[in-house]
């Protein structure tokens, strides 16, 4: 994530700079300066970096999935299942190669003399050597005094409200290197989750249902793949919050993470189960369903790009030509489409912007996405229920259909609970879930009252009291009331 920060020049003036910031914690104040408008700005010196837990977690998931897939492929080879083995290897190697390219590209290793690192990437062990580098940087950080490279300015959020004056934190060399590692592994975690783990989980669940026997390595691979997909979806959600509230120092509480895990886990589980069960009955019809979803979400950013008559963003990478920029944008759009096939991406693409992401997302898309996805899942389950085979004789099929529908409904409920109670910037919303429900109830009452009055007039009953329509502004206070078009303001 790129943020606007300030850099102190030689003449004592503050200059604009663009730096990478991720997960920097606050420690006690060391210096007090004066802001541009004369207000006091606190400058904190960071002598201790935060541990790179996200780097370690992404590396552990990568290695665990790779090892389980290798053991499962050996089992497929011994049983003579060439098709399952080939597909399993494909869904492991494709995201692994993309992960190596992403890490090499972000750290710019091709222009540096680092033969050991490049050799480890060729062996598909790049995340391991990167994780070791991050841990070494973290262990050495704070032992020797080092000059800071930039100052980042943020406003604090307390209980969802902005408090105090903007504060500034110094970022040293070690923290900046760790931030680069964290951001690189966040990108690789999303690639691994939705280009590898999601297809892998779908494949192994489909094979388990057809073969009627859950192999232990296959079960382990499915569990790790589900954890990887959930973690990738969490990264997307946190990234969307950081982009939307870039001027604030956002901190997520444990309750918020728990609510997000339930939301994302239930959503992904219900979606993949619906696709797999549908494919077991109507095998060839799942191809147009999946391909249609992929094409819709792939071309949607490009259609908006052409409708705006915008030009390709410049300086995505200095050495890229227009052809190279187009290829990179196509890869980003492909990843965006793959995410939306399985769950809500939380971020929205803007191919005309340098950062490629929408800074002010249209939250009406959230309601449209979940409404259409819920309808699609119900249709897939109904089609599977109608055309199911005798294989499911010992399973209560209606109960399973209801469970999957309720599971996706619970995912939506946890999403609403997160936005209403657990979102770190919920007090900054123009409208929240409670306002939407209250306004919808008021409009329903108003509609029923007008219908009853018209029915009374049709029946010849004179209405003597001219009851005025309910004043929505008195209930919502200073907030805007026209929120039916935009269902909910969230992040």
From TrEMBL:
<keyword id="KW-0472">Membrane</keyword>
<feature type="transmembrane region" description="Helical">
    <location>
        <begin position="189"/>
        <end position="207"/>
    </location>
</feature>
<dbReference type="Pfam" id="PF09815">
    <property type="entry name" value="XK-related"/>
</dbReference>
<comment type="similarity">
    <text>Belongs to the XK family.</text>
</comment>
<dbReference type="InterPro" id="IPR018629">
    <property type="entry name" value="XK-rel"/>
</dbReference>
<dbReference type="InterPro" id="IPR051773">
    <property type="entry name" value="XK-related_adapter"/>
</dbReference>
<protein>
    <recommendedName>
        <fullName>XK-related protein</fullName>
    </recommendedName>
</protein>
<keyword id="KW-0812">Transmembrane</keyword>
<feature type="transmembrane region" description="Helical">
    <location>
        <begin position="83"/>
        <end position="106"/>
    </location>
</feature>
<feature type="transmembrane region" description="Helical">
    <location>
        <begin position="272"/>
        <end position="303"/>
    </location>
</feature>
<feature type="transmembrane region" description="Helical">
    <location>
        <begin position="323"/>
        <end position="347"/>
    </location>
</feature>
<feature type="transmembrane region" description="Helical">
    <location>
        <begin position="55"/>
        <end position="77"/>
    </location>
</feature>
<feature type="region of interest" description="Disordered">
    <location>
        <begin position="451"/>
        <end position="480"/>
    </location>
</feature>
<feature type="transmembrane region" description="Helical">
    <location>
        <begin position="219"/>
        <end position="243"/>
    </location>
</feature>
<feature type="transmembrane region" description="Helical">
    <location>
        <begin position="367"/>
        <end position="386"/>
    </location>
</feature>
<feature type="transmembrane region" description="Helical">
    <location>
        <begin position="392"/>
        <end position="418"/>
    </location>
</feature>
<keyword id="KW-1133">Transmembrane helix</keyword>
<dbReference type="GO" id="GO:0005886">
    <property type="term" value="C:plasma membrane"/>
</dbReference>
């Amino acid at each position: 994530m790129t943020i606007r920060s300030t850099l102190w020049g030689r003449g004592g003036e503050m200059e604009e700079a663009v730096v990478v910031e991720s997960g920097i914690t606050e420690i006690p104040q060391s210096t007090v300066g004066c802001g541009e408008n004369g207000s006091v700005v606190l400058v904190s010196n960071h002598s201790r970096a935060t541990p790179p837990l996200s780097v370690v977690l992404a590396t552990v998931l990568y290695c665990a999935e790779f090892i389980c897939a290798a053991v499962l492929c050996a089992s497929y080879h011994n049983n003579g299942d060439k098709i399952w083995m080939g597909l399993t290897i494909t869904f492991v190697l494709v995201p692994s190669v993309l992960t190596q390219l992403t890490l090499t590209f972000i750290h710019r290793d091709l222009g540096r003399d680092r033969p050991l690192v490049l050799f480890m990437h060729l062996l598909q062990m790049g995340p391991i050597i990167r994780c070791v580098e991050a841990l070494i940087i973290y262990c050495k950080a704070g032992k020797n005094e080092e000059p800071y490279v930039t100052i980042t300015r943020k406003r604090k959020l307390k209980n969802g409200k902005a408090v105090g004056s903007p504060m500034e934190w110094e970022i040293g060399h070690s923290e900046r290197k760790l931030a680069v590692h964290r951001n690189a592994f966040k990108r690789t975690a999303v690639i691994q989750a939705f280009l590898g783990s999601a297809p892998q989980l779908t494949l192994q669940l489909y094979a388990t249902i057809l073969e009627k026997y859950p192999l232990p390595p296959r079960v382990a691979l499915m569990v790790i793949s589900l954890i990887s997909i959930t973690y990738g979806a969490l990264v997307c959600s946190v990234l969307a919050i950081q982009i939307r509230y870039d001027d604030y120092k956002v901190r997520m509480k444990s309750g918020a993470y728990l609510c997000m895990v339930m939301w994302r886990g239930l959503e992904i589980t219900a979606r993949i189960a619906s696709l797999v069960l549908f494919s077991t009955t109507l095998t060839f019809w799942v191809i147009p369903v999946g391909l249609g979803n992929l094409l819709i979400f792939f071309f949607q950013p490009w259609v908006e790009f052409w409708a705006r008559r915008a030009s390709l963003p410049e300086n995505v990478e200095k050495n890229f030509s227009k052809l190279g920029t187009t290829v990179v944008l196509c890869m980003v759009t492909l990843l965006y489409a793959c995410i939306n096939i399985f769950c809500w991406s939380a971020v929205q693409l803007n191919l005309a912007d340098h950062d490629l992401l929408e800074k002010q997302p249209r939250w009406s898309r959230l309601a449209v996405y979940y409404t259409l996805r819920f309808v699609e899942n119900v249709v897939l389950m109904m089609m599977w229920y109608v055309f199911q085979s005798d294989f499911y004789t010992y399973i209560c099929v209606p109960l399973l259909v209801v469970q999957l529908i309720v599971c996706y409904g619970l995912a939506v409920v946890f999403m609403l609970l997160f936005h209403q109670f657990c979102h770190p910037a919920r007090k900054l919303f123009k409208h929240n879930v409670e306002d939407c429900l209250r306004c919808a109830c008021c409009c329903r009452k108003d509609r029923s009252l007008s219908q009853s009055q018209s029915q009374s007039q049709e029946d010849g009953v004179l209405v003597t009291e001219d009851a005025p329509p309910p004043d929505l502004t008195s209930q919502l206070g200073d907030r805007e009331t026209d929120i039916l078009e935009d269902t909910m303001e969230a992040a």
